[in-house]
Design brief:
11% helix; eight-stranded antiparallel beta sheet; globular; mainly beta
């Protein structure tokens, strides 16, 4: 058992968020293994970031996993939905990467059973992917990705043709940092949240 994953502190959090695109996120669920290629992430830059949970050093029982060592699982709920984050940087530097969308790859039948939606709507948003994976609590908080049932396989990776950036989603009222381009996604991948049909690359989903 490792107590951290140095990959998540190997570069600035925005760079790590881009590196994560194309990696395989898996969950060994009670129904079987589910997984998908990460196609959309957002970086949150800690105390200085007005849209981050740890802005100005805020530290509570609920955001404590963010202060953990690199690679710590941070699950939180918002508007009744669960979202999945990974702590980046060294312990007590509360930066993280939100996984916003995946392209299903393993256990799609299980995901379809967990969610009443199919097609691109299955996992094209942070709450949707957690529902598809069947994660509806915070029990895995403080675990390290790769040590428990959640893993991000850094060696099993697809390569995006183009990585697009934009402002983050749903934080427009949260200060100066709300408009910074800290959302990253695989250009043309149809599982990216909010993508328009005309922007979809349906031949190879934006992968090289």
């Amino acid at each position: 058992m490792s107590t951290s994953d140095p990959f998540y502190a190997s570069a600035s959090t925005d760079k790590v968020a881009q590196e994560m695109l194309g990696m395989l996120l898996t969950y060994n669920s009670p129904k079987g293994v589910v997984g998908g290629w990460i196609v959309e992430t957002e970086a949150y830059m800690g105390q200085k970031d007005s849209a981050a949970h740890a802005f100005k050093g805020r530290r509570t029982a609920s955001n404590e996993p963010l202060y953990g060592p690199p690679g710590t699982v941070y699950i939180y709920s918002i508007h009744g939905r669960y979202l999945l984050d990974v702590a980046a940087q060294q312990k007590n530097i509360p930066q993280g990467v939100l996984i916003r969308a995946v392209e299903p790859f393993i256990g799609k039948e299980i995901m379809l059973e967990n969610r009443s939606k199919s097609g691109f709507d299955l996992t094209n948003g942070p709450g949707k992917l957690m529902e598809a994976f069947g994660i509806s609590d915070k029990k895995m908080n403080f675990e390290i990705f790769g040590d428990g049932n959640l893993d991000i396989n850094q060696n099993r990776k697809k390569i995006p043709k183009v990585i697009e950036t934009s402002n983050r989603v749903g934080v427009s009222n949260q200060g100066d940092w709300a408009s910074k381009p800290l959302r990253y996604f695989v250009k043309g991948n149809p599982f990216v949240s909010g993508i328009k049909k005309r922007e979809m690359d349906l031949s190879d989903f934006g992968w090289k």
